[in-house]
Every structure is written in structure tokens, then in C-alpha cells.
Specification:
The structure holds two protein chains of two kinds. By secondary structure, chain A is an alpha/beta fold. Chain A has 13 helices and nine strands. Chain A has a six-stranded mixed sheet, with helices on both faces. In chain A, helix 9 packs across helix 10. Chain A is globular and about 80 Å long. In chain B, strands 3-2-4-1-5-6-7 form a seven-stranded parallel sheet, sandwiched between helices. The chains are: A alpha/beta, B alpha/beta. The interface between A and B is large, with 52 and 49 residues.
Chain lengths: ~325, ~230
Amino acid sequence: MVKIKELESIKIKNLEKQYPFILSFFQDNKLDVEEYEEYTLKEYLNHFTEEEIEEWAIDVEKIKLDLESYINQMIEFLGLEKDTVDSISIIAGKDKHGNKENFEELTINKSEIVSIVGPTGAGKSRLLADIEWAANKDTPTERVILVNGKIPDKSLRFSTSNKLVAQLSQNMNFIMDLTVREFLELHAKSRMIDNEEEVIKKIIEAANELAGEKFDLDTQVTGLSGGQSRALMIADTAILSTSPIVLIDEIENAGIDRKRALNLLVNEEKIVLMATHDPSLTLMADKRIVIKNGGIHKVIDTGAEEKGILKELEKMDDIINTMRANLRKGEVLKNK
Amino acid sequence: MNLVTVSGPPSSGKTSVILKTIEAIKKRGLSVGVVKFDCLYTDDDKLYEKAGVPVRKGLSGALCPDHYFASNIEEVVKWGNKKNLDLLITESAGLCNRCSPYLKGIQSICVIDNLSGINTPKKIGPMLKTADIIVITKGDIVSQAEREVFGSKVNSVNPQAVTIHVNGLTGQGAFEFSTLLYDEDENIETVNNRQLKFPMPSALCSYCLGETRIGEEYQMGNVRKMELSDKNG
């Protein structure tokens, strides 16, 4: 572990060389080091006048402790040979009325899709929170969540860089007013990946495969259509997010190829959980969880018969999509 | 009694988060009360009442709300003890982003929302930087990427804090947050002689005292001028 005492005697310019990520710490904390490259950290931190300290609400002792934590977190984050998450298991707890859930243990492997069905308010949020928190009989449902068959370390709960679950929902919007390129760069920077350009290219290509209408890197994210936004969010989450589990809350059947979207997540080895009321999406999953009264009521495998029905549903979806596209082109629909 | 101070920008979701969290705490058989500090107006006390939570509100009116907090907190703590609360939560809106009502040794929580933009962590001073726990809200309506970027910005201005995501509408995360709030071994009977975590800005110019006229001759006390000239002459 790096100690602040050791850092204090190092020159700013050398600190930047040794820990390049320190720049974002300086920037985000409004510490202007530009003209102080030759100062040691200690000299720099001591150079503020009384007035500056009051004026800019600087707390030197706090900065020191923060910097120490930040550097150590980053070293851990970057150096970490990330333990890949191959599976998660849910061990039954109880429902709102205290009845034991109707299953023993459900294991979901990477690249597997499980849908979640049940009335609104039945307990989907609780299930998700249990997974995100890696519950260990310490939540209202008393479920236990295992990662790779084991109880995960508690530190997972508070880690900002290693969150278990990434979420995608119909209500999500882009709020930053940036181009697609700037947006992806920002995300890539926060992840500190090396091959930024390459990854951005991969994401935009993947997004365009999903979106009904193409868009490019210079489009403003706030100007994307609903389908395009969804496509970009899914591609970005699949490729750039560290979270091994992706929770999808409904994908509307317009302007986006849902089957491809799921395939992309599966190909990126995500564990996909999908809350939905849509029959095609439900059946695209390998299994589904039925939620009732706050608990898991049933776990159903999608059988051959249902897969057959899915084919029929997909045909219907196709018909509707073709009609939508034709109407938009200005055509008049005809009976066959 | 335990004391927890919650603050955060207006409309960041403080009340929703606290209400959802109280639901979870009550299930542990603990009694919780809230004192809401605001400036000109608040109706949040009604929301707490509706949820059966003992509540008091204080409007600072013409005073800075955080200064008002500092001069009332001891009485507030007394009130909480008189009510035999296990946990007293104070809630106050940070208005100028410079103040914070946190006291040393008292758990301090900053609520901040994803919608406020990724530069916000940089703009908020001690209220965010000296918090022990940072609750990030409204994650359900922004993209995963923005959530991740926002989280990493928050982390870089306060790496020592615990960051937790709570959805004030569905309550997702509120139970988890509630587990961080109560410590059996702690008992706050008074906050007399405790210190603020960070001094509030020095003020007292003629406008603090009610001056309304614009012009150099009316400016007295702590006055400072902007640098507007071009730097290169």
C-alpha cells in the first residue's frame, strides 16, 4: 500500500509519471498543478495562502488522505486480475408473507438469459437489489447470492469500479449533451482502458447493427431516436461496462433488433436478467423466474413447445415491423 | 440516540431516500425522527407525518440555512432525546454548494443525483467532499455509462466515502443503505462543543445586512471584485 508520507517528498511531475491517473484527481479536485511541476507534493500542498484555503474550501489534511485512498484504489483497480464472474446462484429465501420460496437454488451462467415475469410491485426490484448487494441472509427476503458458487467478499458491495449489475431500462435517457464519440470517450476514460479508439469503433458498429436507423460518431446523443439510444446503451453496456450481470427492464419493440441485442450481450459473456411483459422477449430467455408476493414463485425452463410458439411470435413481430417501416416510407398497406 | 445529518442539493431526492430508508429501519424495531431544515418553504414535514414519523421543521427565512442549522442543532438533539428516538435524522438542502452542516464525529450523508451532470461533483464543495456516505439517486433514468462516469467522478473527489446507489421511487438500495445507519454502541445526548467539519464561508458585507442598492458607495465589509480585464493587457 502506498503511504502519503512517501508521496509527499516526490515531485509533482514524477508523481504524474508514476501514477498517470493522478491527473484526474487533481482536475476533479480543482488542484491546478500546471506551474508547480517541480514542487514536491508537500511543497505544493503547503503553497496555498490562508486566503486561498478559505476561498476555495481547501482542506489540505483531507486532500492528503483522499489522495492516499485514491491512489491505492486505482492501483488495485488497474492491477487487479479481475476474477471473472462465471455464474451467480440465488439460494431461496422467503416471500413477503414469510413463506419459503418455491425453489432451492438457481444458478445462472454467463451467456445465459433469464427473464423475470410477474405483476408490477411483486418484488423484481428486491430480487435485483439482493443480487447487486450480494445478499447473505441479511436482506428482507433472506436470500443468499453466490458468485462462482461462493459467498463473495463484502467489499463488493461498496466498490464503485466493480459493480455486479449494470442496468438498462426503457426510462433511461442520455442527459449529457455530447456527441456519440465524446460520450464514448468519456466512458472509456473513466474505465482507463488502453485501446480507446478500437473499443469506440467496436461499440458504434455494434450499435448500428442493432438500430433500425444508422447513426455516426458525430451525432449528438441527445438527438438519437428512442431505438438508436437503446442500441447505443446496449452496445456500450455490453462492451465497455465492467459489470458481469446486465439487468434489462423491458426493450420496446421499435427501432431496435431485440434478438441481436440479446445476442450481443450473450456474446460478450454477460449474465442477462430481463424483466419483461412481452411474450417474445420472455420466451427468448432460456429460463424464466415468476415472481409473486415478493418471492420467487416458480422457475420455468423454456421448453420446445414454447420455442415453437416463439417462432410464431417472431413472425408476427416481423409483420408489424415491416408494416411500420413501410408506413414510414409513405407506402399504403395492402392485404396480401 | 444516534444522530445522522443528511444534506444535498435541492431536489436531489433526500426526502424520498430518507422515507424509504426509515421504512427499513422501523422493521428493526427502532424509532426514527426527522428534523427538516429549509430556507423559505417546505412541505416535506407533511410527507414524514403521513408516514408516521415524528418530525419538526425549521425555516431559516432570511438567514443562511446552514448557519441556521449550526445555531439550532443542539436544541434539535435535545428534542430527539426527549422523544426517546433511537435515530434522529436531520435533513437540509445545501444551497450555495459551499457550506455543509456536518459535525465532526457525527455520521454525515450527502445525497446527489445522476441528473445533475458529471461536473457537479467538482462544483460541490465540503458538502460532498467531507461526507462519510454518498447516496447517488435517479440512476433509473440515466444511461449505464453516465452512471458509471458519474460514480467515478464522485469517487475522485471523495475516495474515502462509501458510495451507494438508492432509487427513491422503488426503494431499491434503501434497505442496504439503512444497514449503514445505526450503531448500537453510539449514544448522542448532546452536540455541545462539537465542531463543524468545515468552516462556513466568511460573510458580512453590506448586502448581508439588508442593503439593496447597487453601487460602490453602498458596498462595505467583506467585498471582493471580479477580474474582468483581459489578461494580456
